[in-house]
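# nightly structure sweep
# worker-07 picked up a monomer target from the shared queue
# config: single-sequence mode, recycle default, output format = structure tokens
# input follows
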Amino acid sequence: MKFPNTRMRRTRKHEWSRLLTGENQISVNDLIWPVFIQEAPTTKVESMPGVKRYDIDDLLAAITDAVELGIKSVAIFPCVDSRNKDANGTMALDKDNFLYQAIKLVKAKFPSLGLIADVALDPYTDHGHDGVLDDEGYVDNDRTIEILSQLAINLAEAGVDVVAPSDMQDGRIEIIRGALELEGYKDCIILSYTAKYASSFYGPFRDAVGSSNAIKNKSKAHYQMDFSNSEEAILEAQLDISEGADWLMVKPAMPYLDIIAKMTDRFSHPIFAYQVSGEYAMLMDLSSRLQISPEVLFYESLMGLKRAGACAFLTYAAPMMAAYLKRHTCK
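# output follows
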């Protein structure tokens, strides 16, 4: 293999030949759209251009448009009014809360839409952490996972297809799987946030769900993963698989391509990647600064995730990318 017998540029010259030899492809089937819902009228998320906190009517309209673009799954996150938050996240288990009502309405209107919901307490706690705290201010693992198992049951009962524990407490997959089996929700999928790192890229999300002020100066590093570690992610994956997780997730995505690749190489379970709020905001800002199409940037970034081994992506750019892929069906 030497020049000129080998000319790597031969198959790069034409679009048709590049498409024939492309190793990875992205389709609308790879996209999961995270959406925010609140009881108040729809508002913009200022730190995430183009992203909104929807009221139920606007959410249903937005999902209608997304479904028409071919999006087949949505992850729904509540933005809870601060007046309804407390130290124990009590509202999370109130079956009359607006999230459960929204899930029922979405599922009734879109029965074939894959509906994903987080299992965590941070939207509901006044301290912004993903569980209840002990006397020293740390999340109490064992008390928290008992609450999370009931939250998972409530979500399944409301109609979600996938519960996604994002709290990073030890043992929560096993107790949630056991609770789902006991209550008859044996087909409910568990998408575990397996390698969720203590990251600075979550800032705009915390703004979106109204936990920015609560969590300020209060680190989640005592339960989320240290971003200097990679082998630890493999252990977390082994534990989640043994406890009954169906799918595994890496969060954030772009700075953790090595983690996605390692987990893909080691495990046969599907690996998902969450292109988080900070990644979204960063790419949107770069698009504005360079005066180029954001779709081009997102397409390249998502291809990187696909190349690393991710089978699907949660991205706030899902509707934008679905429309882009629809216009470029040959890409």
